[in-house]
Write a structure and sequence with these properties.
By secondary structure, this protein is α+β, with helices and mostly antiparallel strands. The chain has helices at about 15-35, 50-55, 60-65, 85-95, 140-155, 170-185, 195-200, 215-220, 230-245, 290-295, 310-315, 335-350, 365-370, 405-410; strands at about 40, 45-50, 70, 75-80, 105-115, 125-135, 160-165, 250-255, 265-275, 280-285, 300-310, 325-330, 355, 375-380, 385-390, 395-400. Bound molecules: adenosine monophosphate. Adenosine monophosphate binds next to β6, β10, β11 and α11.
């Protein structure tokens, strides 16, 4: 009988087959990022609410609608982290990392929380892996990070991936453009979705993300920021593109690309996958040159990305085959279960995977179970000695009791 409890809405259990795929994804990411000098960091699952209000931005959907915010017993307002960059910048400042050689290159993986309407690829607790380079404005850093995410998705084997690239310019340079965009939106007020209309002042860029037809038609005619980049912003963007071309990282310029967090400046990018439905973004990020200052530090340029593990899993559409076992140590009539347990432990210490029966099965049941868990060989202990059976061929031969471990480990090679 199943229990009356279920995992909360928008959350899910990761069962063993899926857990193995996730482990492979995390290991691949850790290896690729470590080779490029990104060191792992972990921050708490919740932070002061104000960190996200200031960092992510008051006018964003995340802060307005999606945060899991609660008061602790001391009356402090805390929030389950909806994203990883603001907490990492908080840690960078808190631990004086600006005094280290710059940039500080960090990577992370863990759960994040957003109170969104659940659907395929969108959950209330999800997992991101991410990387950040803090303390550099070099386009080399943008291209390096984008290249690493491209490499990661390729190595994991995510099919149908496309990279979209844009630039939001620097914060100051963006102001004139935003005024122009607001004027365009006001001139078409009647055609816009109510949400977009309400945010003309606070967040006009988000209009590019609206999916209603009226707003989309207005945005097709709207002035585009990438086409208006000037001076150093234009040079920076051209340099990033040149570096990606040189490295053979295919990309398409998307003048309508925007992101759901306020902190982005200059480069923004998004990896989308054609195997996914409405939630087609696998990962994305960009530059956030103003964020550290926004959180109380000195102006510190930085760039980073995050990729969603669940989206990667959905795109892969397959689960890892169970790894099987090297040896199952069975006990025949007259054999000793204690001895089997000791032999299995010795085999494990020698680096093999080995299991024994823990359910009191007879020999026949044990062999059936060994087959079920994918054991390649079964060692059968009886009163006098031992037999080693190869499960694929069915061949069975006696092994000398004094040489059990050597024989089995040796036969493994
Ligand atoms: P963001 O932090 O919004 O830039 O998102 C970065 C990545 O995290 C996205 O590309 C998705 O892969 C993933 N992601 C964001 N929100 C969710 C969610 N609610 N459920 C699952 N994955 C998500």
């Amino acid at each position: 009988m199943s229990s009356k409890f279920q995992a909360p809405r928008g959350t899910f259990d990761v069962l063993p087959a899926a857990a193995m795929t996730r482990r492979r994804i995390e290991h691949t990411a850790a290896a690729i990022l470590a080779r490029a000098g990104y060191e792992p960091i972990a921050t708490p699952s919740f932070e002061d609410t104000e960190l996200f209000e200031r960092g992510v931005g008051h006018s964003t959907d995340i802060v307005r609608k999606e945060m899991f915010t609660f008061e602790d017993k001391g009356g402090r307002s805390l929030t389950l982290r909806p994203e990883g960059t603001a907490p990492i910048c908080r840690a960078y400042l808190e631990h004086g990392m600006q005094r280290l050689a710059q940039p500080v290159k960090l990577s992370y993986v863990g759960p994040f929380f957003r109170h969104e309407r659940p659907q395929a690829g969108r959950y209330r607790q999800f997992h991101q892996l991410g990387a950040e380079a803090i303390g550099t404005d070099s386009p080399l850093a943008d291209a390096e990070l984008i290249g690493l995410l491209a490499e990661l998705l390729a190595e994991i084997g995510v099919p149908g991936v496309e990279l979209r690239l844009g630039s939001l310019g620097s914060l100051d340079a963006r102001q004139a453009y935003l005024e122009e965009l607001r004027a365009h939106l006001r001139a078409h007020e009647g055609e816009l979705a109510r949400e977009v209309h309400e945010r003309i002042d606070a967040n006009p860029l988000r209009a590019f993300d609206a999916d209603d037809e009226g707003t989309r038609a207005v945005m097709a005619e709207a002035p585009k920021l990438v086409e208006r980049l000037e001076g150093e912003d234009a040079e920076h963007f051209a340099e990033v593109r040149g570096l990606l071309d040189a490295a053979g990282v295919e990309h398409a310029i998307d003048p309508t690309l925007v992101r759901g967090l306020d902190y982005y400046t200059r480069t923004i990018f998004s990896f989308v996958c054609d195997r996914l439905g409405a939630q087609s973004e696998i990962g994305g990020g960009g530059r956030y040159d103003g964020l550290i200052e926004q959180l109380g530090g000195k102006p510190t340029p930085a760039v980073g990305w995050a990729a969603g593990i669940e989206r990667i899993m959905l795109a892969l559409e397959e689960e890892e085959a169970a790894p099987g076992r090297d040896v199952f140590v069975a006990v025949a009539e007259g054999g000793e279960a204690r001895r089997a347990a000791l032999v299995a432990a010795e085999l494990r210490q020698a680096g093999l995977s080995a299991e024994v029966d823990l359910a009191g099965r007879g020999l026949k049941g044990q062999l059936k179970h060994a087959d079920r868990i994918g054991a390649r060989r079964v060692l059968i202990l009886d009163s006098g000695g031992a037999q080693l059976r190869d499960m694929a061929s069915g061949e069975q031969r006696p092994v000398e009791a004094s040489k059990l471990i050597e024989e089995i480990v040796g036969g493994q090679a």
